[in-house]
Prior knowledge:
There is one protein chain. The chain is 71% helix and 6% strand. The protein is mainly alpha-helical and 324 residues long. The protein has one domain. The protein has a 4-stranded mixed sheet with strand order 4-3-6-5. A hairpin with a 2-residue loop joins strand 5 and strand 6. Helix 1 runs antiparallel to helix 2 and helix 5 crosses helix 6. The protein is globular. The mean pLDDT is 88.
Amino acid sequence: MINYFLYFFIPLLISLLATPLFKRFAINHHVVARQNHRTVHAGQIPKLGGGAIFLAFIAGVLLFLFTKPELALAHGKMVGALVLGATILFVLGALDDKADLNCNLKLVTEIIVASLAALAGWRIDALLLPAAQELSLGLLSYPVSVLWIVGVANSFNMIDGLDGLAAGVATTVLLSSLAISALFGNVLLPILSIILAGAVLGFLRYNVNPASIFMGDSGSLPLGFVLACLTLNAATYDAGKAVFLIPLLLLGLPLTDTSLAILRRVRKGIHPFHADREHVHHRLVALGLSQSGAALALVGLTAILGIMAYLVAHGIQMDMKLLN
Length: 324
C-alpha cells in the first residue's frame, strides 16, 4: 500500500517544485499567452506548465517500473506507447506554445501517435452494451480507437480556456477512472491514474484563478492523450471489451463541448480547429459567473458524470456475474 502513496506524492511534489521553474523558463523565452479577443485573462501569462505535469508523470512511471518490474514488463508495450506518445505530444505542444504550428501538422502527428498507441494495446475490440449485449468492432477496432484518442486529446486542448478548468476536469476524470478500473479488477490503470493525478494536482496549485501559469498545448495535448488511453482501458471489463457508456460519461463535458464547437465552426464555413470564444465555459462567464465559479460548476458536472459512469460499471459487473 505504501507504493500507492509514493505513486501519488512523488509526482505531486515534483510537479509542485517544477512548475515555478517552467514558469521562469517560459518568461525568459517569451513563451506566454497574450491577451486578445478570445481570451478571458488579463496581461501576459507564461505557458509551458505542461512541462511540470509531463516531468512528474514520467518520474512516477519510472518509480512504477522500479517498484513493480514484473507488472511493468507484463504491460511493457502499453506503458512504453503511453510514455512515447506523451513525449511526442509534449514536444509538439511546447513548439506550438512558442511558434503556433500549423493545425494540420498537429493533427497528422496526433493520428500517428494514436495509431501507435492502438497498436500497442490501447484499443477496444468490442463494446459491452446494456443488458450484457456485445457488439464486436472487427476491423473498425483500430480506427475507432484512434478516433477516440485524437478526439479526446483535442477536446482537452479546447476546454483549456479558464483558470484551473482543464486540470480540475482531468483530476476528476482520473479519480473516477481509478475507482472504475479497481472495480473491474484492473491492476495497471489505478497506478497510472494515481501517478497522473498527483502530477496534475501539483500544477493545479499554480493554475487556479488567478493563474500564474497556463499548461499550454504542452500540457493539454499529452494530458488529453493519456486520459483518452486510460478512460478507454478503465472501461474494459474483459480483454478488449469496453463498456460503451463509461468513457462517454467520464469525458462527457469536453467531448460535448468539442462536438458543438466543430459543428458551430463548420456551419460558419471556418476550420474546425479555429479558436473562438463560444465554448461552454465562455458562455458561463458571459452569463455572469466568475472564472472560478464557472470552472467549479464544470468540474462539479464532471464529478456527477463520473459517479454515473461508476454506477453503470457497477451495473454491468452485476449483470456479468449473474450471467456467469
